[in-house]
């Protein structure tokens, strides 16, 4: 397996859904950053949207613990280990279906690859792992804040309901987003999405969705061409999130329909600064941030775990029907809960490139400038 | 910069568009693979589509040379260095515009990041670098062939013209693709695309497009969750190709509109094998190949280099108009030429995971089985 | 910081000496390996040599816990997290000396590099981190055992007392080693070493030592030239252990005095196998294991923490004398306790190359053989 | 294989001894560094010591070529590819012995690992590869000079003849070293070494040696604990050089004989700076440079290629005698020619950590300071 992400600001995550705990080790966070467990737990709480009915997590809030790397309230440069205990789970639910191949699920490919599968709650393949990303993301966001970089993610569509989102002010957009039970900053769309989710839920079904993001005040020069372009790493980050099936930056797939004269963003000066008068590129040119907002979208498939009966086979290749146990709770739309996860992944990518840029751009006139 | 891709089967590329040569070093290709320079050059020729008018490359075919790593017709395990001389270029064209910020181009971000820019023909940021990927891809494809894995990429849309593509037989699809001047296997769409390109070309403009791919007979078990999932690496690979703005696997963005009961692919047995009766997932479950065809799409923006005059500013922030020199030749639709590049990147990703799987799956009963 | 070691079988460690816990995440251990917490704790106990007076650890035995990656007694391919709680420490001892630069210690360079230093018990720089290596090493050794590879480390000298060690039988050598209170398999030398240590201890001083190792039945072909040679990685592993100042393989520094005709090991056949009639090379030729025992030595400096008063300066550059607190316990000879650490690092290096070889050697005739 | 070294300032080398060319790609060198091909070739010439009789290289000087990454005399941040053509070789010499296992050589392990061996002149395993390191080292040294860091390597012993070396002034030491035909700065020892080499040479034999190095004015704070300590990386670098069997830093193996009160270097102030009054540690504490000179020694085995007949077996396991062809020229003491190679590896390690430190130390008050 490959449970590590990032080059300088890097994380390693561990833990299964129904094991004792899950956790993350952040290696490469600069020393001297103020961070508290409260900040981490506050951010973790966002993985449990207010729309209590549409999502179905464990009952209690996650409580993270900082095990190492912070001394007298500041990071020391040492690895920051954060663990989150698992509680309120009942693995017995999974016993009756452990020999069934679950459509859209990890169990078939894990069994084939590893010859063994911790079926309890999805084991290592459970979306629970994303809590570790959010915990680490809280640290990355703290680092970005120090340099004035802001970011937000939000639900931009669920099923056929799409939001209209203006990305002018990040703080405002963030507030609207997290005020919505379905993390959608457009109030009207929010209502429609709630209805959609309630409908599929009542059918024992689930639904897909799209999460958008905006990152602002990113310094020019982040990204390492040719093979570690900013968009390349963002794409890799997004596709590492469970259920992601698509990613685009700027105009994305729509760019394929445009002509060069439409898509090219003209350079203009704005005071002493250079910027572009439009942002079809989504803030990245040739793999490097150009100072404009970085804008992207991430497509999530519908949750594969549905209570509707599904035809399948078992480990002995016999036809059967998969019926999830009555009590089992599953998120009807993973895109919602993924909002802070997308933010966290964005933050870690930007943090890493921020540090990499310090090491990889151009020679300075004297040593002290360089580091 | 980061000019390396892959973990075991890995490449490092070098060279600028108007430098002496470009090249690639393949490190980690297993020993004992038969490969000839003819096979590499034959594959390289595909980067110069037959549609002579729609694309505008250098006049002579690229001629690669194997510098190392092959002995008596077989790879030795040593790094395989391949170089391609640059010829027939005229850097003088770029002199008059070297101080202008070129919309949609690399020069602004490169100058900001590195403080220096080799402006001749796009320097390191030129799509010419992709020839190195195709050369290395020829080796990866040879390795995949050895294990019975086949793949193809093709133009699936340009502007508003879309192809209908059936992925039944890879060999047939490949033949149709490369028979089309615009690498589109759907004959009707091919004609419309040619018309579209001719039109934008006559306007001094360019147009975007989408490239699809199919990889077949991939063994179950490729991909390394959590952070090096098969789709994650494919995404990273695709976004490293110049001009890419979107990537999706399986149903992609459309999955966001579906319900779980529609999107989940039911498991069925087929003889002694397990497969799924549909393939919305595009051949990947939980980051690991499931044996079904791996299917994806890659969105390319329109070429930023257009002969139409464009408003911009120069390095001193003065407003000006960018007018590419009359003789300058630019590809009106980069998606076409990207077809073998997409194939090459797919092949290298699969080759790498094939080798990684040998190292990372499960314990074998005896040593000789394991290696 | 860089708290990760290994490519496929890789570890990330975390934790400070006086923090809540220390821990290690093993990523890349193949699935299907049987491992119990008892085996890990048993191996961990070896870091607390019986020679109670010569070493001065915490009072209670370390008790490790497996947090993830093991299901029904077997590894699952998921990251194996192991934590060890810190207990019985008193950080108050360090308060009075926290502003003094400690000769031979980490505090000066850590403060300069990170601007902050967790001075309690040495913080991240404490040798306590090596317990994590031993815990992970227990897993690696289990993997090697599965393939019939055996290894042992032992004290080969302390100060001017040297042991005579025959490496014929690993099991026997291991038994003798761990039977000695100072982990020295040569009984006579063992006694002299005990005397030496008692003497320096009574002076409030410490002493250096050398640890030797032998790895047997290593398959031919481990090691990845040019820059990841077997000896290169072993050297890197050994120098990552605190207090290591020298490493040699085979004849080591003595090889510099020999002629080629003396040093070259002649190839002979032994039954159907090829071996060499001598082993000056120490089991490695051109970066690759040759099937002969891998033999090396690791030099440890004397423990820098001594109770003897030492001249130094404080953080304000004032001259002062460092006097460690009376109650403080320090290991008079770190080489002894390093024995299982050297074993653990050897085991992890060999395990990693064993897995890498599966990915990087030569093409197999059919897919199933390759993985 | 693993033909890459370094994390930020990194190299990939390629090429065989009797192939068309060898080469190196430097990825991660900061933009804006002045470098000329003359500087590289001048440094490369040092791999051909003046002591014409003791070493036996090809007749003509190596002529490197810069293929990419330098524009108008300065590095651009793009990969710097440098190639060196192979000339004046005659592969026919190797034909008669291609089926013989050569004691101390690469051919047995390469054949076992890769199933194929390019026997011509040692193929990939030839020390000729080190020319690429020297070429890349010239660039690294240029970068270090920019920051005022100086270094030198020299022969400190051959067989039983040892030099006395004072490391006061690097420039002077360097001059004396390269003035000696055997790269030994101690004139008396130099003469004795020449005699020793002439003697072993007349016997058709070879001899080992030790190379020392000193790196001065290294900023405090280089090195990334725990697993990428400065000494750990230096050790890895040195053991990647062919024929190296031992490495030590500071007092090295002798430290194992010392007591803590002898080995600990007392901190003193020197003007406004902190330094140590002795340097047993060799400039590194806890994996991080402490500002004192970095001092180390590297042990080389005798050249395995000797003209004296040697008993061995062939590929069919038949006993035979290896007699190198009369005309074949081999270096009787590889340590001499390794002097600039050791320098080059030191320079690349320091350059890489210099860049890494910029990315990994502690948070700065504002963005512009950080990069």
Q: Please, what is the oligomeric state?
A: homotetramer
N-to-C SSE string of chain A, H for helix and E for strand? EEEHEEEEHHEEHHEHEHEEEEEEEHHH
Provide the low-confidence segments of chain A as ranges.
Answer: 53-58, 366-371
CATH topology of chain A: Chorismate synthase, AroC fold
Description:
The structure is a homotetramer of 371-residue chains. The first copy, chain A, is of the alpha+beta class and 371 residues long. The first copy, chain A, has one domain (4-370): Chorismate synthase, AroC fold (4-Layer Sandwich). Chain A is 28% helix and 21% strand. Chain A has ten helices and 18 strands. Chain A has helices spanning 37-45, 107-114, 130-146, 170-179, 187-202, 230-239, 260-263, 334-337, 339-360, 367-370; strands at residues 4-5, 10-14, 21-27, 64-66, 70-71, 74-75, 80-85, 150-158, 161-162, 209-216, 244-249, 267-270, 273-276, 284-285, 288-289, 294-300, 310-313, 319-322. In chain A, strands 1-2-3-7-4 form a five-stranded antiparallel sheet, covered by helices on one side. Chain A has a five-stranded antiparallel sheet with strand order 9-8-10-16-11. A two-stranded antiparallel ribbon of chain A has the order 5-6. In chain A, a hairpin with a 2-residue loop joins strand 14 and strand 15. The model of chain A is unreliable at 53-58 and 366-371 (pLDDT under 50). Chains in contact: A-B, A-C, A-D, B-C, B-D, C-D. The interface between A and D is medium-sized, with 25 and 26 residues.
């Amino acid at each position: 397996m490959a449970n590590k992400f990032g080059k300088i600001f890097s994380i390693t995550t561990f833990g299964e859904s129904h094991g004792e705990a899950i956790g993350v080790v952040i290696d490469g966070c600069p020393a001297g950053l103020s961070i508290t467990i409260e900040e981490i737990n506050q951010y973790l709480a966002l993985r449990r949207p207010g729309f209590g009915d549409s999502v179905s997590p464990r009952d209690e809030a996650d409580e993270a613990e900082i095990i190492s790397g912070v001394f007298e309230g500041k990071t020391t440069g040492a690895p920051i280990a954060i663990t989150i205990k698992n509680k309120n789970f009942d693995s017995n639910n999974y016993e009756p279906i452990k020999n069934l191949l679950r459509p859209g699920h990890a169990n078939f490919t894990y069994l084939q690859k590893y010859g063994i599968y911790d079926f309890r709650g999805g084991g290592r393949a459970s979306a629970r792992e994303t809590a570790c990303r959010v915990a680490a993301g809280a640290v990355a966001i703290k680092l970005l804040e120090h340099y004035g970089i802001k970011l937000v993610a939000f639900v931009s569509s669920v099923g056929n309901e799409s939001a209209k989102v203006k990305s002018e002010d990040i703080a405002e957009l963030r507030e609207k987003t997290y005020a919505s039970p379905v993390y959608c900053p457009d109030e009207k769309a929010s209502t429609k999405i709630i209805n959609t989710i309630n409908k599929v839920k009542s059918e024992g079904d689930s639904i897909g969705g799209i999460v958008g993001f905006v990152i602002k005040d990113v310094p020019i020069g982040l990204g390492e061409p040719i093979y570690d372009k900013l968009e390349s790493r963002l794409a890799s980050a997004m596709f590492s999130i469970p259920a992601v099936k698509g990613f685009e930056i700027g105009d994305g797939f729509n760019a394929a329909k445009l002509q060069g004269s439409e898509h090219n963003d003209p350079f203009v000066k704005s005071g002493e600064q250079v910027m572009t008068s439009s942002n079809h590129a989504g803030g990245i040119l040739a793999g490097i941030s150009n100072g404009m907002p970085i804008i992207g979208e991430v497509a999530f498939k519908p949750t594969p775990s549905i209570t509707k009966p599904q035809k399948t086979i078992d480990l002995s290749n016999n036809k059967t029907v998969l019926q999830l146990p009555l009590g089992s709770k599953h998120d009807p739309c993973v895109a919602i809960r993924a909002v802070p996860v997308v933010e966290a992944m964005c933050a870690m990518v930007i943090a890493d490139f921020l540090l990499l840029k310090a090491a990889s751009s151009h020679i300075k006139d004297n040593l002290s400038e360089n580091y």
